Amino acid sequence: MSGKQQKATAYWKENVRYLFILLAIWFVVSYGAGILFKDALDAIQIGGFKLGFWFAQQGSIYVFVILIFVYVRLMNKLDKKYGYNE
Amino acid sequence: MTVQTWTYILVGITFALYIGIAIWSRAGSTKEFYVAGGGVSPLANGMATAADWMSAASFISMAGIIAFAGYDGSVYLMGWTGGYVLLALLLAPYLRKFGKFTVPDFIGDRYYSNTARIAAVICALLVSFTYVAGQMRGVGLVFSRFLEVDINTGVIIGMIIVLFYAVLGGMKGITYTQVAQYCVLIFAFMVPAIFISIQMTGNPIPQLGMGSTLNDGSGMYLLDKLDGLSTELGFNEYTNGSKSMTDVFMITLALMVGTAGLPHVIVRFFTVKRVKDARKSAGWALLLIAILYTTAPAVSVFARTNMINTVSNKEYSSMPDWFKTWEKTKLIAFDDKNGDGKIQYVADPNKNELTVDRDIMVLANPEIANLPAWVIALVAAGALAAALSTAAGLLLVISSSVSHDLIKKVFNPGITEKGELLTARLSAVVAVVIAGYFGINPPGFVAAVVALAFGLAAASFFPAIVLGIFYKKMNKEGAIAGMVIGISLMLFYMLKFKFGIFDGGKAAVTELQKDWWFGISPEGFGSVAMIVNFVVSIIIMQFTPDPPKNVQEIVEDIRIPSGAGEATGH
Predict the structure, then answer these.
(1) How many domains does chain B have?
(2) What residues make up the domain containing A19?
(3) Do A56 and B78 count as a contact with CB atoms less than 8 A apart?
């Protein structure tokens, strides 16, 4: 494998690792907190919100937005590290 | 001034603005027509994507649906936002790097096959036409209610406006009108929500007002109050749904994956300069969408509580003006079954005397809350902005599928730049006329088919694109087999359980519910069809030849963000 290809492979591996971590969080806040464990979380009440219901109608959406901006930051750093930024 | 005068003024000003932008930003080349020249800034693209995505359904219908479905409505909130995470992480950057004009372009080139390209064109057309018919209907509805013109006249006015700026401006005109439309629609959605939130809870932020205590001195939490009212009338507790957990899970997944696979959304990411701009504009898009999507469930809670308080067990003769106006449009209907002159609004269909169309909740909300006339007119202008922006985005996908993917890539590769631009404009004209026809004569199954569009996008595009990027060895045999089987399975399930065509028509649909596979509704079945597509693709791939070397090199190239160059059609 040439040096150029090795660099590309290493970059791709790190990229995929980020994706796994971010998508795990994506899954936990929506399908986990908002659906599968909704009933358990509903036992906790914060202000007027039952927690599971809050995650399903509010919380998961806030986390989605944060996830994309975190991804943008991570990838910009990664691009710089491998010299792929422009 | 009356509501109607205000509506004429606000709608007039916004329409003049859209036309002005279209004249200023008209397209001179196919590149400007398909991808706005490729130099849109991430924030502008985020705003355009948000307006593109938020349709009449998001603006008018969604809060109403949630108001009646309570927790079950969460599937739309999570489904239609969570899809953007998939889009930003798994699709947008790579498709931008690939650097072509359309989604069928990617499928056709990555799977080195015109069969795959044509299959993708058919899916894109099917998805876009079903959607656009719904938008035109939304335009007609707003016109007929607020400007008191005939619903068909409303559709025709909407057609002319869209025709003007989509045909003249192409993607370039659409992008900058969508930026303006986003501003109009978000302002129109937020103003009444903030007013009502202050009125009911004293908290100016609707997202917090939803979880606050009531303003009436009782000190009771709004959501607890609504749960109480709902159970009292025999409905489900608002914060608990009636759908099974499996079904909620599957519908959410199908909507998320379907969102990520919608061609009119994906194509927006071809309009920015660099790969990092594509990532960033996905972030902006979701942030701007989230403003509406986190406000909508609050609006639902306010509207539902207000409505029950206004009508339940009250004298019919004492109903306010808005009640009478909506009765005229037949979207509210009262049938005094027990003849006591009072409105019984309860869950039991034998005793219930009031039917309220879910679509009117957002439009009627400012009137129910007694807000000033200009706010009511603003909502009308916002609803029109939402419907027109989405219609324009879809029309562009339709026209580019025909002029670029079919004519240029398949039937007449020698066509000149000028000829292609003309074809693109003509296809847009034809598409507007067809969409208008469906807006005036809506097939009874529009709503059902929109759900089908998500299932189809989930079952076809999403696996083919994701595998095309993340699985270098995926070949055309695997991808085509996956798409064909995924779509066919989805179609079969919809036809069987949504339309009942194998068991004696629509009448049989309710009876068939108990036969749902694993208890999954047709709306959620897109998830299953998507998984089947993935599995079939991977199995078929094992027994068929690897993709050619140059295709594998394309895949390696799209994984590297630098050197994206400009989107081209060649």
Answers:
(1) 1
(2) 3-81
(3) yes
Task: Using a CB–CB cutoff of 8 Å, tell me whether A50 touches chain B.
Answer: yes
B14 in a structural domain: yes
Verify whether the Cβ–Cβ distance A8 to B559 is below 8 Å: yes
Work out the angle at residue B263's Cα, subtended by the Cα atoms of residues A74 and B35, and round it to the nearest 5 degrees. Answer: 80
CATH code assigned at B429: 1.20.1730.10
Chain B segment 292-311 residues within 8 A of A by beta carbon are: 293-294, 297
- Would residue A62 count as lying in a domain? yes
The Cβ of residue B164 has, within 10 Å, a number of other Cβ atoms equal to 17
* Chain B residues 328-387 with a CB less than 8 Å from chain A: none
Give the Cα-Cα-Cα angle B532, B538, B540 (nearest 5 degrees).
95
Please say whether the beta carbons of B104 and B128 come within 8 A: no
Lowest mean pLDDT among A6-20, B347-361, B432-446: B432-446
pLDDT band of A1, cuts 50, 70, 90: low
Are B82 and A30 within 8 A, CB to CB? yes
Confirm whether B39 is domain-assigned. no
pLDDT of res. B445: 56
Per-residue model confidence as pLDDT tens digits over B492-535: 998 888 888 888 777 778 888 888 998 898 889 999 999 999 99
Does the residue A11 lie in any domain?
yes
Minimal C-alpha gap between A19 and chain B (Å) = 7
Q: Which of B472, B461, B537 is nearest to B106 (CA)?
A: B461
Tokens of A11: 């970059």
The residue range of the domain holding B96 is: 3-27+49-558
Q: How far apart are the CA of B442 and the nearest CA of chain A, in angstroms?
A: 32
Domains contained in chain A, number: 1
Query: Do the chains contact at A84 and B286, CB–CB below 8 Å?
Result: no
In a domain, A86, yes or no: no
Token pair, residue B174, equals 């659409």
**pLDDT tens figures, B212-261:** 998 887 889 999 999 999 998 888 889 998 888 999 999 999 999 998 88
Distance CA B520, CA B249 (A): 9
B59 within domain boundaries:
yes
Per-residue pLDDT of B549-568, as tens digits, reads 999 999 999 999 887 665 66
Residue A41 Cα, gap to closest chain B Cα (Å)? 12
DSSP B315: B
Please check the confidence at residue B449 and state whether its pLDDT lies above 80.
no
Mean pLDDT is lowest, of B51-55, B349-353, B544-548, B566-570, for B566-570
* The amino acid at B178: Q
pLDDT mean across residues, chain B:
87
Q: Report ipTM (2 d.p.).
A: 0.96
A77 found inside a domain = yes
